[in-house]
């Protein structure tokens, strides 16, 4: 009987399985088509030159390919690589086999459904009708996609040739597969022949849409007049549950219905001439658009295909006229209608989101509104995407461009987020609703029914009993609908519409318990955007140009999280890329960082106006006014005082800073919408993109703010750069008002990179720039005595000579500037600076050792005196200048970076004694030196000198001793230099010879440490060279600066009374003024 057949055939189960299988097969066909068209992905053997003859031959002879005789010459390439060809083509061949098997199963199921005389009505047995129509459309789509695979014959033919050559016979499935290819050369014609017997069932299912589709396909004016989706239109009924007889139909995709109608009537076209209702429904669908989606980005021009097919049939001239009329209607009206719909939905979703954010409890009774809003919006988004690359020739192409798409996408994402966030609210509400209303209503409905047969009785009893347990599954409902939709069923849903309504409503409510995510995917899936990258990027670009849309821009990368839904187990090879998501986030971060840094630049300029260097003009003007001097002429432009930019007569006047802050507020609002989301199993954090952009650009800005010019050797003062960085940092910290961003981490990362020679991108840092400038700009001139080290003021100063300098040395080397430099480049940067200074020192020491002084000629004092050379003192002076500069830089580190560790470090340094192991001593001194503490021995200098040793230790020791003696006996010639005059103002000599003391002390300490000799003993010997005058001031400075010598030792060599008289002679020439 018919009932027995329905039970045995398991229609519901087969529909479910075949629909999923058909989707997978369809994706495979789409993937094969894309692969064969892409030169990079195209199978190797289709492009190989050796296979060219084989490909042409198979294409020409398919399906009857002769493997013997003269044809073998064309198949030589396949013969040589038959195993490789089989392996490469097997996946394609198997995919085409899947199509054939899918077709066979669909044939069988459709014939079974016809034999069972099933009843279809979307309002009664929704799931059964929907699955039936979906299977038909999926099957049509598979066949259409199969016909679009141009290389299918070659792929199958090559595999079969390789199989024949390897196994001696063709593949068993090849004849049927080849026959299928030949049959579907004209797919629409063949499909219409196949569906002739199924016309009655398909037409019945489609006609059930005649009440639903016109009601859903309304213009925006009617939506607006009906106050569609508004929760505020009827405040009194706001808490009433949103229910109707056909709940699932309310959020059914309009695009899906149009696909059902247009493709269904294309195959079952005979009813268009015999049934007026079918004709009206078909024409209404034709007026909605020109294109239908097959899969992914594959579309068909349904008007053209239908017209071409009807053109070959008799009696369809009126239908062709209808198609042309509908096409004109689409071209004239469709764009504007959908534009108005999108405008309505933007406002409707905005209102819905605001109300639900304020009262999330309304998600319980009004959850249907959410799914309707998402479904309507999704349809409009996909319509625009579909037509953006298929714009018809119209007078209003702007209807197909929407620069406000970001807002619609944003509110769709907000609704999805609200549903996910408050899913427990929805669950609790529907748990009570099911138990206290649905179960009672269903039970009452069943009491009024006739006695059910055994199978339906079991299902109905299970349906009611599990309702309270909340375990009803969709398949259970589909099975019940299938069993009650066959002809002559004892329990026919057609006869019990009330039962159908209750079942549909109950099924919707059960979905709210554990299928919310599935429902969100069904109603708001935008994964197709993944396959329209050009359109999606164009939408983003158009929205980003609208200032009012900038706060919604994050909806574009958020929409990329839908791409996870594109994955199907039957087609895992499909390309998965984060490119679109990354592109959007990079652009948003770029725009935001540009605005932020422009604001920082403005604030830096304002801060610069408040620096002390700009107050001279103001002080001068105030002084002139007080002394009643001549006022400036009218033509002179007076400088505006800081703060005038904030004065305005009218608040309506918008300044550039106002615009920037407004833009920043809008852009930061987009970042605050989502902290992270997932795309293809990657967790994406938008704020990190902004931090990365800010870090990159801030690094470049800091280097640019140094104003370094390698050609002219000009650079900005460290204090000016530090003030600028502080202004930038202060402005960046205001970002916390807009979004949660770790600005401290950002600034630390940037500044830490600036303490290294190169940043993370390989670019120069301020450490490198200032190191180069101080070495090449300042110290090089100091070595030529154009710049003098001034101990009295702890800086370097320019000589008062005619040579004009490009900069004032004291403006770059006084205490405040060195402190600023230390704060900018930190201990790491100062270490790099020190290493470069040490390189210059070692080069000077190397020159001293390589001078024309040989050890034998130094054995007698007389020969030493004969060999005196000013060059030695000059090099020692340069070393002293470099070490003096380094000491100035090191002193500024103290108490700057680790004040809480200074005490322990000082204690460690003080515990070091001459008896301490030299390795331990150097390790402690290295730590102390990095903290800015003075050490008896310079560890950096020791390391630099140790790396110079090329001869034996004894030989190096002799050279060191003789070098010190040579320096000592050379000192008297300094008196011959007029620049050796001592300056009270400088606290030193004009030729920097006061730096000799630093050079002798530190160099001798380091050299004797390297050679493991007693430093104090050798310095005493240095002082005991008393038969030659060492120079009064230099000798005193050596003792004062040395931790190894004392004044008692100096007194024994040189009476202090002589030194005091020398200072008196120097100072009596100066007039000392007080006050």
Summarize the structure.
This protein is an all-alpha fold and 1075 residues long.
Structural account:
This protein is mainly α. Helices cover 63% and strands 3% of the residues. The strands form 4 sheets. The protein has a two-stranded antiparallel sheet. A two-stranded antiparallel sheet has the order 3-4. Helix 33 packs across helix 37 (815-849) and helix 37 (815-849) runs parallel beside helix 42 (939-946). The chain is elongated, with a radius of gyration of 45 Å. 39% of the residues are buried. Residues 621-651 are annotated as: Disordered. Residues 623-632 have a biased composition (Basic residues). This is NCK associated protein 1 like. Residues 633-651 have a biased composition (Basic and acidic residues).
Specify the oligomeric state: single chain
Main β-sheet description = 2 strands, antiparallel
User: If strands are numbered along the chain, what order do they take across the biggest sheet?
Assistant: 1-2
Secondary-structure-based class equals mainly alpha
Tally of helical runs: 48
Region (Disordered): 621-651
Protein name: NCK associated protein 1 like
Pfam families: Nckap1 (PF09735)
Biased composition (Basic residues): 623-632
